[in-house]
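Q: Give me the 3D complex with zinc ion.
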Amino acid sequence: MQGVRRLPETDQTCDRCGPAVRAVYGARRDGELYLCRSCANRFWSALCAQGWTIHPVTSGGEES
Ligand SMILES: [Zn+2]
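A: Here is the predicted complex, encoded as structure tokens.
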């Protein structure tokens, strides 16, 4: 490994792709779902149609 920084604890992985893929978007409705960029693009409209709220995952601890 060449100077790879450790990921913060809040880092999430894509629920579709598995633990090897980092999630960049979170979706919330009854529960919480995490998606990588390609999965988010793919499922975004479907999730929105089902009432999911999609928000970017911040890895800097900037949750609000
Ligand atoms: Zn994915």
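A quick observation: DSSP finds one helix and three strands in the chain.
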